[in-house]
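The data are set out underneath:

___
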Amino acid sequence: EKAAKELPDVTVEFKIPGEGSAAEQKRIVDDLISTGIDGIAISPNDPTNMVGDLDKWSESTLVVTQDSDAPTSKRTMYVGTDNVAAGRQAGEEIKKAVPNGGKIAIFVGKLDAQNAKERFQGIQEALKGSNLTILPPLTDETDRVRAKANVSETLTKNPDVACLVGLWSYNGPMILGAVKDANKQGKVKIVCFDEEVDTLQGIEDGFIDATIVQQPYEFGYEAIKAMAAIKKGDNSVVPENKMKIIPTKAVTKATIAEFKKTVAELRGS
């Protein structure tokens, strides 16, 4: 909306798949292309299996991926997060939280998902050569009950674990819930990703040390601005590697108030 206001000759339409499936995304984009749309910014739901669709759409219109990428496709560019860098940022927060070292437990839905792999890689890079030991990561297949159970089991089997790390957005609240059940809030450190309400509350309460947040508003803003420029023949907005990276931020107790204020302003609330 901000980009559309700044670009009077641009009209922005928002389309959200009701069921969130790749098939629903494909139907929406096919319909848009049949109307002669000038450009599409899409977060592909299943990037690996949507390469063919993205290639086909790219023959008819301008395609920019945002948040989720399909780098082997013919999309014009990607706007979003560098998840390896985000993982390294999380690793730095882990080192701050547990300066005396110890065991680190990692929790995620699926470790073979691209963003999970990259975040984990970044954490490993940041902790290399430190006094911290990473336990084998535990996955939950996006089942929140299992996600919480994984944390509870870890606290039982490794009572000396120093820090619990959640790679996906819901992992933070599930970690905090299990830690509270074990009455270990404030005793075991927590670092996670994204800005779920319970995660931000956990930071305010002092039970979560840090969360690494993306800037999704910037994804949309930069994608629309880039598409408008490209349609006018200005390809200088496309980086050489075809990736415009929007940096992540570490939110801690010291910065939570300012972060919430910024988000409220962006949401117009």
